[in-house]
Amino acid sequence: MAVLANSVILVSFARCRLLRKRSSNILLMFLAAGDLLHVVVSLPISIIIPLGYPHSFYACLFLACTSTLPMQLVVSTSFIVALERFAAVRWPYRHAQYCSRSTVAKVVVMLWILGASFIYLPMFGWNMGWINNGKCSYHRLIDKQFRIYAIFFPSMLLPLLAMTAMYAYIVFVAIKTSRTVQPAPDAVTDDNRRTAVVATKKFGVILVAYVVFLLPVDMMNCAHLWLGYICVACTRIATWGFLCHGFVCPIIYTYQNKLLRTVVWLTLRWHRINEHELWLEFGSGGV
């Protein structure tokens, strides 16, 4: 289901140029790509490694690192989503200049490369060695301290705290602008901010999805490393939530974006997409 949902979204972006005219929509495309990679890359690896394959040390190490890479890409993109929404509210007039499509795409690619550089550190020595009688095992190869201190803290927890701070500022602006009764000299700026806040509320659901689906797995790892506490039932629930992320988020994107929802529906029915009619109905890639 996750493969189908994310593939339909990516095909919809490929078929409709109007969708690709807004930086926020470009970010949705990157999020869908990250979720698709999570399903087609991480899930098969998570099946292969428990079987003890591959028997080569570096091949096993490479697969173990690659299994966590797609989720790192999703987290990096989610952080850029929050940053783009923050810029839209903080600098409504300069948002188009700061967050153009090319700029957003370049920043996402840079963060993806930076995230990959962290993920593959075990390939250069930060691992527990080949101690499982030649059988591949993620937990006996990847150091728990690496998972917590090199992946969770800098690559997941810090972006989460930054996203929370940015969304808190946006909520503050929303409350402030909602109390504006009389037209002010900067009424146009307030209108732009109100529009950005409305769009941001929709993107805020992505942050909630991140906390609900992705954070519990890392919290279980922290409890195991620091307290020696293992809750099998909690870990199973967290893992299922982790896997559901790739299916739930595309539904959120499609439901909240009217233009994307229309194009997805046309794509599922394989109908012709009339760019001119969509422009008249939604404008320049409206949310």
TrEMBL record:
TM helices/strands, residue ranges: 26-49, 55-83, 104-126, 146-172, 203-220, 226-253
Gene Ontology, cellular component aspect: plasma membrane
Keyword annotations from UniProtKB, A to Z: Cell membrane, G-protein coupled receptor, Glycoprotein, Membrane, Receptor, Transducer, Transmembrane, Transmembrane helix
Record's keyword annotation contains Transmembrane helix: yes
Subcellular location(s) per record: Cell membrane
GO molecular function list: G protein-coupled receptor activity
Residues annotated as domain G-protein coupled receptors family 1 profile: 5-253
Membrane topology: Multi-pass membrane protein
InterPro entries reported in the protein's UniProt record: GPCR_Rhodpsn, GPCR_Rhodpsn_7TM
Protein name: G-protein coupled receptors family 1 profile domain-containing protein
Organism: Ridgeia piscesae
